[in-house]
Amino acid sequence: MGDPMRIRAASAGDTVEVKILMRHDMETGQRKDAAGKVIPAHHIKTLVVKCKDKVVLDAQFGPSVSKDPFLSFKFKGGAKGDKVSVTWVDNTGDSRTDEGVVS
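and the corresponding structure tokens:
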């Protein structure tokens, strides 16, 4: 399981802006270590964001996404005090879920 995500969600009228910083090494499987051995691929594959148990973002990532990815997006239908749940699953089966509250 990776380190906790930083989740910020702010309401502006009828729109909620979500900013997520995910802690993950995101190895492509193409780099080599100091000994010349290939470092195995290890990257986030899927990301699901929910608000009030409704999916507001469903994304698929690949090996070309940088280390510790940052994601920002907006959606309608949220309000102050609602919980925003973020879950990712990587290519090794590891997963992480964290929550933030809309301010």
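(Above: one complete record from the training split.) Residues 23 and 60 are 17 Å apart (CA to CA).
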